[in-house]
Amino acid sequence: EYPPSVRVSLFFLATPPFFSDSAMQRVFSSYKLYRSIPSYARNSFPSFSTVSIGATARKLHESEFRYDLMKWGSIGFRRMSRFASGFSPLREKPLDSIVDIHRLKDRYPDDIASIWDDYHIGRGHIGTTMKAKLYHLLEHRAKECRYFVIPLWRGSGYTTMFVQVQTPYILFTGLEDYKARGTQASPYFSVRFYTEFAESKDLVLIRGDIVFTSKLTDAEAKWLMETAQSFYLNDVRYKLVERFNKDTRDFEFKDVLQALDMPIL
C-alpha cells in the first residue's frame, strides 16, 4: 500500500488553475441589489430592514429573473450553458484533466472520496463529495429556485453573499464588492459538481475554487458551500429559498438569520 501522498498523486494530473486571470470579471451588470441588502459589519446596518430585502427580490424577479445570472463564454466548452450577461468567460475544468478516471473507476466509493479529499488539502481548493441522490435533489430544486442570499458572519457583523445555483455550478458573489466596483466586481468562490461516478459509484465529486483568497478564507468558503447546500437539501430551509424566488413579497431576511442562528442587527 502506498503512503497517502504517493497514493493520491497516482490519480491526479498536474493542471493549471481553474480560472484564468481575466475570467469572470463582471457580476450582476444590471442588478442594483447592493442598494438594499446589508453590508459588512454591525455599525453598517442602522437603516437595514427585512422589507428592503423583499423589495429587492421582487425587483429582480420583475426585471431580471427572466435571464440567468451568469454568462459563460465559449472558451473550453463542449456544451454551452445559457447565462445572462455580466460575466466574462469561465474556463471549464473537466474531471479528466484533474484525475485519472481510469485508475479510479475500479476503486470503492470510500476510497475515491478519500483520495479526492486528500488531494485538495493545502492546494487552494476545497474537495468533498456527496451521494448522487442528494445531488439530484439539489439539481431538481435549483431548476425552480436558482438564487439565494446567505449572510457570512465575520466577528461583529456579516457580509451578504448572493448565490446562484445552476448545476453543475454554484457561484458566490460579495454584494459589498459589487457596491464598490460595480460591473468590475468578481465572484469570490465557485463550486463545481462532477457526476462521472454518480451512476456507477453513487458518488458526486465536488470541487470548490476560491477565486480571490483575499476575499474568503478556506474555512469561510467551505462554510458557504455547505450552507448553500443545506438550504437546498433541507426541506425546512428550502422553504426560504422558495420564498425568495417565488413569493418574494413574503420573504424576510431575518428568517435566514434565524435559520443560521445569527443575530438580527
UniProtKB/TrEMBL annotation:
One GO term describing the cellular component: mitochondrion
Alphabetical UniProt keywords: Mitochondrion, Transit peptide
InterPro entries associated with the record: ATP11 (IPR010591)
Keyword Mitochondrion assigned: yes
Pfam families named among the record's database cross-references: ATP11
Transit peptide found in the keyword field: yes
Subcellular location as annotated: Mitochondrion
GO biological process: mitochondrial proton-transporting ATP synthase complex assembly
Family per record: Belongs to the ATP11 family.
PANTHER family for the chain: ATP SYNTHASE MITOCHONDRIAL F1 COMPLEX ASSEMBLY FACTOR 1, CHAPERONE ATP11
Protein name from the UniProt record: ATP synthase mitochondrial F1 complex assembly factor 1
Organism encoding this protein: Pisum sativum
